[in-house]
Amino acid sequence: MELNMELRNEIKQAIEEMGFAALTEIQELTIPLLLAGKDVIGHSHTGTGKTAAFGIPILERTDFTLDIVQALVLAPTRELAVQIHDELMRMAKYIPNCKIVTVFGGDPITNQLFKLKKKPQIIIGTPGRTIDHLERKTIRFDYLKFMVLDEADEMLKMGFQEDIEKIFKAVPTERQTLMFSATMPKSIMSLAKSYMIEPEFIKVMGDDATNSDVSQYYYKVRRENKTEAIYRLLNVYRPKLSLIFCNTKVKVDELTQELIERGINCDKIHGDLPQTTRLDVLKKFHNGIIEVMIATDVAARGLDIKQVEAVFNYDVPEKADYYVHRIGRTGRIGNIGYSFTLVSKGELKQIEEIERITKTKIKKRSIPTYDKVLDVKNQKVVDKVVALATSDTTFDHEYEILNKMMQSSLTEDQIIVSLLKMIETKSSVEANIADINEEFETRGAKTWGTTDTSGQARFHLNLGKQDDLTVSDILDFICSKIKISRRDVQNIAILTEFSFFSVPATAREEIMSKLNNTKLKGKRAGLSISKPPRKDGFNKFSK
């Protein structure tokens, strides 16, 4: 579908400059319904053009002559909120008096108060900080006419259902609502039934859970050789931008240092880093200043970086849906991408389970040999020299230096190889010339989502709604004393007399030793290990 919609000229000019030639499938199906005032449930993965699907109608239907909030977009993470803001600002580039503000935790609230005083028409925020501003009365939604929940399933998994319902009750009942979600658990449909009016359901997923434009491969390799394997694959495939996912923050830190020592232009992002650092790394990666970004699954949701050509799974992800979200970072909107998963002994069964759940065949490949890597690197140098020599560049200064060299006792060959040596990428790591491919068979099955094998520990807390406990209280209680990101605390369920939450199993002992029998909201917090939540992501007692 061509861009022949009836839109204000300012939007058309901006999106044409952004490279919009035709609408994606999700945009083609969603935009006309939203422009017609319909409520919509969108079932679609990240990377299909969702931001424009709701951003264009919001900008078209907002009255920018009024200094009142008319649209609210909720997102699960601050990173996604910032990216939505930036995308909308690009589309609103030529709209006079357009003011869009983001509100999220980790950013000084004084900064947000200053921006809110300028009376924006559009707010983009995370649920917790949006509630904070509502309670402070620094945001009013009296005239809100458009509300979007982006990555709705992720917000519910993170325990924000109560906050979301509180926000719904604070906005006008006569409004237009849109929910985008990569999965459709019962909780999503229940939310839609309670707060949406005869929503239109749109599904753009394809037959497989994973993107057909992503070539997916896996490699059998020992854990101690995984860094070498990634180094070789990066050099052979030479992707423009690459994302590497690890299951833990510790491994992200270790791998980043190991690749830097090998001369790879990379940086990292995970929950323990300051918010300003994370946003700075994302910006540099988006602009190509950093070619490789290493991350935990905190970055698996919502990242909209269109030029990512390859995703590497250093660790096989702990859950099949994590795999889907990870590789969804590449192969965006028709572009071809690559997914490389490194499998050590004991992880092979997880690959088979991912294939079964996603209905996708992941092809087995061999790690390139050291000689192959060397050939590719050498050819890369040759290509650069040829390209420079045949360009329109002038070399007056360089010829002056060359003439001085020729006057020395050095031969032409000595001069050339010495210069090549000077430009060679430095590495403090001794070259590994061995064949690092391994052969091993499946040993033992892994059951996804159980307490012992999913990497999650489930806790029972003796405080609940009768103690005025909120999701934010639980997150603050845990993250202020344990080195864990707020996103890692999942499946929060607050009941009348008690609550539940899940954390990575690696934090189990620290949680018990540092938090059990301490004070929470002035009362003793009693913790005990609980059963894992149900497969739909929520404990049977949660609403």
CATH architecture annotation name of the largest domain: 3-Layer(aba) Sandwich
Structural class: alpha/beta
Name of the CATH superfamily of the largest domain: P-loop containing nucleotide triphosphate hydrolases
The CATH topology of the largest domain is what? Rossmann fold
Low-confidence stretches: 443-453, 534-543
Helix % is 25-40%
Distinct helical segment count: 19
Q: Give the overall shape, derived from the CA principal axes.
A: globular
Measured distance between first and last alpha carbons: 41 Å
CATH class value of the largest domain = Alpha Beta
Question: In percent terms, what proportion of residues is strand?
Answer: 15-25%
What about the largest sheet? Answer: 7 strands, parallel
Gyration radius, in Å: 26 Å
Average pLDDT across residues?
A: 84
How would you write the strand order of the largest sheet? Answer: 3-4-2-5-6-1-7
Number of domains: 4
The number of distinct β-strands equals: 20
Describe this structure in words.
With 543 residues, the chain is α/β, with parallel strands linked by helices. It folds into four domains: 9-204, P-loop containing nucleotide triphosphate hydrolases (Rossmann fold, 3-Layer(aba) Sandwich), CATH 3.40.50.300; 214-369, P-loop containing nucleotide triphosphate hydrolases (Rossmann fold, 3-Layer(aba) Sandwich); 371-423, no CATH class; 456-529, Alpha-Beta Plaits (2-Layer Sandwich). The chain is 38% helix and 17% strand. The protein is built from 19 helices and 20 strands. The strands form four sheets. Strands 3-4-2-5-6-1-7 form a seven-stranded parallel sheet, sandwiched between helices. A seven-stranded parallel sheet has the order 10-11-9-12-13-8-14, sandwiched between helices. The chain has a four-stranded antiparallel sheet with strand order 16-17-15-20, covered by helices on one side. Helix 2 (25-35) runs parallel beside helix 3 (50-61). The longest helix is centred in the C-terminal third of the chain and has 20 residues, at 370-389. The two termini are 41 Å apart. Residues 443-453 and 534-543 have low confidence and may be disordered.
